[in-house]
Design a protein that fits this description.
Layout lengths: L1 H18 L17 H14 L4 E7 L2 E9 L2 E8 L13 H7 L5 E4 L2 H22 L6
Parallel strand pairs: 3-4
Antiparallel strand pairs: 1-2, 2-3
Helix pairs in contact: 2-4
Length: 141
Amino acid sequence: MRPRIVFYALTAVRESILKNEEDMKTIPYIKQRRIHSMNVQCELYRKAVMCGLKPIVEYKYENCRFDVVMVYNDQIFAIIEVKNYVRPYFVPPVTKQMDKYSQLGLPLFLCRSFQDVDYIVAECVRLQKELEKILGGRGAI
């Protein structure tokens, strides 16, 4: 029943657009100086899923909220913090948050821009393959 409702809604929108095409106002696209870190996080999620990883975004654990965690066999094996800097190769100082995350003993990645996404996903794929070798089909750690 739902597809029929969606079809009718799309048809109504299409007819409305065709009728009012001259009257429609457009919102101009203005290129942003910097991209919001959520966009980088979405791209990281998309590429990770395409590579067979299981990312979980905005994962909350005790008093921490991780931007992205990678999970294998119900175990977190990597933490990814996404920050956006105007200069992508700027090396940020170690913050309290990053220091707290690094004390958990898991690999911690800082994704600063779209340029970092491919590298981080490749490293997570490598880590997952190492976990698969170690576990050898035994299940969770």
